[in-house]
Write a structure and sequence with these properties.
The chain has 363 residues and is α/β, with parallel strands linked by helices. The chain has helices at 18-29, 83-97, 182-191, 215-230, 238-242, 248-256, 335-355; strands spanning 6-14, 38-41, 108-113, 119-123, 126-135, 157-160, 174-178, 197-202, 208-209, 244-245, 261-263, 267-269, 272-274, 280-282, 285-288, 313-314, 317-318, 321-326. It starts with 5 loop residues before the first strand and ends in an 8-residue tail after the last helix.
Length: 363
């Protein structure tokens, strides 16, 4: 049942995180009016994108590389406050300042081909018929859970970064942290201060990066991720190709043995994990800090995926459909990349709208 039947707009933006708000800002800058020419749909209960779901111990001072949204700086933030509060308040103020009129909570169920050259965006508040689409749904809704033999037999607790509550819940427990990225190391260093025992397990040897993350390093990392999406392969995160920054906290954790990495176990037992050589570790908790995948299942009816499993993208445009742009996907998954992608997508969409005549409604 639709709240308003089918509503025609020029652009639908799905997602109101960094990339979606950037796109909405640039749509306004080009003269499009929210709720008339374009609409922003967000499934979250409040402003803040995925940041609103981050664990309380991730304070703003621990956030790496948070880049301001276009047109409004984030100033005077207290480094000791949870990042979910700081960035949530910033996003809320941003939406108000630029009158972006985000619709929430709205679930986007499917995007499919419509009539007259339009796409149909089917949502929990009704259906939109749009001339173009900016998909900015990120990855937070698709946590990746690897599968290992015996996983269902484990008698302890298994959880993912997406459900990480902070270190306090692990006091006095034996915890295995799986994953060699930034989240895994942050979880491990926090939990080690209260847990009875921690074990760190990764598929690959962790790579540590010396020196600053400057523009040259950033461009090289983005280029590697961009190469994959150009080939239609599932994107890797930018962080996965940059390595872990060798901060003072990480140096101390390595020195103390907290970041003493173990190779990936071969199976999970009722009481812990085991390796093929006979070694075992008992645990009360397995924490999977194993990353996320792009949340793009709602685009499945458009058949945009390539044989390699990803959507082939040139810039932000889906190669299989010029009406569809993906921002915050692959090389634009970082906060600064999301800002640039939002601007680039809007530039191309404006050209598309000007080039194509207004579709004629089919009676």
């Amino acid at each position: 049942m639709n709240d308003f039947g089918v509503r025609d707009v020029d652009v639908v933006v799905i997602g109101a995180g960094q990339a979606g708000l950037s796109a909405a800002y640039h749509l306004r800058r080009t003269g499009l009016v929210p709720d008339r020419d374009f609409v922003v749909l967000d499934h979250a209960p409040r402003p803040g994108g995925a940041w609103q779901f981050r664990w309380p111990s991730l304070t703003y001072g621990k956030v790496h590389g948070m880049h301001a949204l276009p047109g409004m700086e984030l100033t005077g933030a207290d480094d000791r406050r949870p990042s979910s509060e700081v960035i949530g308040a910033y996003f809320a103020a941003y939406e108000d300042r630029f009158d972006l009129r985000v619709h929430r909570p709205v679930e986007v169920r499917a995007v499919r081909e419509g009539e007259g050259g339009r796409l149909l965006v089917e949502t929990s508040e009704g259906t939109y018929a749009t001339r173009s689409l900016i998909n900015a749904t990120g990855t937070w809704d698709r946590p990746f859970w690897p599968r290992y033999p015996g996983q269902e037999t484990f008698r302890g607790r298994q959880l993912h970064t997406a459900n990480y509550p902070g270190p306090e819940e692990f006091a006095g427990q034996r915890v295995i942290v799986v994953g060699g990225g930034a989240s895994g190391t942050q979880h491990l260093m926090e939990i080690a201060e209260v847990a009875a025992e921690t074990t760190w397990v990764t598929r690959r040897e962790p790579v540590y990066r010396e020196g600053p993350f400057d523009e040259t390093v950033g461009r090289a990392a983005v280029a590697l991720v961009e190469e994959r999406v150009r080939k239609g392969l599932p994107p890797q995160s930018v962080v996965s190709v940059t390595g872990l920054p060798l901060t003072d906290a990480i140096r101390e954790a390595r020195r103390s043995g907290v970041l003493d990495r173990n190779p990936m176990f071969d199976r999970i037992t009722p009481t812990g994990v085991a390796w093929a050589d006979g070694r075992t570790v008992d645990a009360d908790v397995i924490l999977w800090a194993t990353g996320f995948r792009a949340a793009i299942d709602h685009l499945a009816p458009l058949r945009l995926r390539e044989p390699g499993g990803g959507i082939q993208v040139e810039g932000t445009r889906a190669v299989r459909d010029e009406r569809v742009h993906l921002v915050g996907y692959g090389p634009s998954a970082s906060t600064i990349g999301a800002n640039r992608a939002g601007r680039a997508a809007v530039t191309e969409i404006r050209r598309l709208l000007e080039r194509q005549p207004e579709p004629v409604a089919v009676p």
